[in-house]
Design a protein that fits this description.
Strand order of the largest sheet: 6-22-23-21-20-17-18-19
Helix content: 25-40%
Bound molecules: S-adenosyl-L-homocysteine
Strand content: 25-35%
Length: about 475
């Protein structure tokens, strides 16, 4: 049967793609169908076709998969922020583990790595401590706020995203009320007119502290005291500010921040480590799962108190500070200077004086420190962005020859590539564990422990009678 654009057809969903689309096959031709779930039989409409595969729109579920559930969010399909809302939480976890497993096998060539069970959430809803809502007007001219519809800048009026905290909705209502009462207009992208662009809301899950930052297309927020008065009615309201962003840009926050109420930050904890979070700070959005993920990284680091540890791609130092509680010395490296300012601030705040931070590229700072200052490492932890570690960085790690490497990854394809390279150069993957930080989306985090293979240990024994101080890091082990 020849299927043409806009034709409807029936297909069984046999698999899921990495981005969470259902995959079905008809006469050897592959269909990707968003919102379809493995195990469904669906009716779909052909939308876009290439030579050997095409994209179709889910029209109707004929026979639902065992894994299918009714999406809890009424705008799940329009919003597109959650790709797996039609999948039960349990089956999402399986999907994620499978994705990592397959990448390690396909790209890395790993077949028998011990996989520990994925760390799922006890409560998969309302896990995000941060949300950013755009403001605009609907067709009737009323002020609306919500989410951009997938790949567009049309606002879907939905103030109660189920991934965010319950306070968001009421805070947004207060902001709209303030706007109406004080004739403050929402921003319009097409004309670059109007004032209120976005609201950024954050909550400290352990402290209950709330932060609101309104992003405006102007220098001043008129009658700001009225907004403060409304927002201060919320339990836990700690910081209110506005950010000036008059550029025609998709970047949400501007550079200039004006404080309206409170100290300019909120405080929260991950484990026992305290963090000061300003509107501009990076902070993990799912602190509960972050604690599990980084707790596992700490466990894998196997620290006894005497170790020198490097934390590469350290961000605001979340992992560094975790490690510093158990290590002799921790060095963190991060490319974004502001993140390092926060990292240093957070180290001070927690009285951790055995951490030192470097601003720069991991692939430059590490070799430089190694060559110039003969630094060494007992353990190296990496938590790189999606593109994974730079080759130069991996090479230096290999040369420094730490006993253990702990790799935290948000992209299992680059993880597989990097693990393969480390394993070709004297390391062995001991265990892998996934962690779900972003339920209902396709994202998955993985933590992996690598150990230096035995030949190297043998090497240490031979060389130990030489004065240790004269040895470079690699020679010391
Ligand atoms: N563990 C960190 C988050 C790591 S996310 C935390 O909890 O804060 C990855 C980080 O790598 C980001 O902060 C990003 O700015 C940084 N980064 C990206 N490329 C880099 C590079 N070449 N060298 C060092 N850091 C880099």
């Amino acid at each position: 049967m020849e299927i043409k654009k806009n034709d409807c057809f029936t297909v069984s969903i046999e698999d899921m793609s990495e981005d969470g689309s259902g995959i079905g096959k008809l006469d050897g031709y592959i269909w990707f169908i968003k919102d379809a779930v493995k195990g469904d039989v669906v009716e779909a409409k052909a939308m876009k076709m290439k030579k050997s595969y095409g994209f179709a729109r889910l029209m109707r579920v004929i026979t639902p998969s065992q894994d299918r559930i009714e999406p809890a969010c009424p705008v799940a399909r329009q919003c597109g922020g959650c790709q797996l809302q039609a999948m039960s939480y349990e089956s999402q976890l399986k999907f994620k583990e499978n994705k990592v497993y397959n990448n390690l096998r396909r790209i890395g060539g790993f077949t028998d790595i011990p996989f520990l069970p994925i760390m799922g959430m006890d409560e998969p809803w309302r896990y995000r401590n941060k949300a950013q809502f755009p403001f605009g007007r609907n067709k009737n001219g009323e002020i609306v706020t919500g989410f951009y519809a997938g790949r567009t800048h049309d606002i879907i009026p939905q103030e109660d995203c189920l991934l965010g905290v319950e306070e968001n909705k009421k805070i947004l209502e207060s902001i709209k009320e303030y706007m109406i009462e004080n004739h403050v207009a929402p921003y319009e992208e097409e004309t670059h007119q109007g004032l209120i662009r976005h609201a950024l809301i954050r909550k400290g899950f352990k402290t209950g502290e709330l932060m609101v930052c309104v992003i405006i297309n102007g220098k001043k927020l008129p009658h700001s005291e009225k907004l403060v008065e409304k927002l201060c009615r919320f339990d836990g309201m700690t910081s209110i500010s506005y950010s000036i962003n008059t550029d025609k840009t998709n970047v949400i926050l501007g550079k200039e921040l004006v404080n309206l109420y409170g100290p300019g930050y909120i405080t929260d904890y991950i484990g026992d480590v305290k963090y000061r979070i300003s509107p501009l700070s990076f902070y993990q959005v799912n602190p509960v799962q972050t604690e599990k993920l980084y707790g596992t990284a700490l466990e894998y680091a196997g620290l006894t108190g005497g170790e020198v540890v490097w934390d590469l791609y350290c961000g605001i130092g979340t992992i560094s500070l975790f490690l510093a509680q158990k290590a002799k010395k921790v060095y963190g490296v991060e490319i974004v200077p502001q993140a390092i300012d926060d990292a240093r601030e957070n180290a001070k705040l927690n009285g951790l004086d055995n951490v030192e931070f470097f601003v720069g590229k991991a692939e430059e700072v590490l070799p430089e420190q190694y060559e110039k200052n003969k630094v060494y490492a007992d353990v190296i932890v990496v938590d790189p962005p999606r593109k994974g570690c730079d080759e130069q960085c991996l090479n230096t790690i290999v040369t420094m020859a730490p006993k253990r490497v702990v790799y935290v990854s948000c992209d299992s394809a680059t993880l597989a590539r990097d693990l393969k390279m480390l394993c070709e150069k004297g390391y062995e993957v001991e265990k892998v564990r996934c962690c779900d930080m972003f339920g209902w989306t396709t994202h998955v985090e993985t933590v992996c422990l690598l150990s230096k293979l035995h030949e190297a240990k043998h090497h240490v024994n031979v060389r130990l009678d030489v004065d240790e101080m004269d040895l470079t890091a690699a020679e010391r082990r």
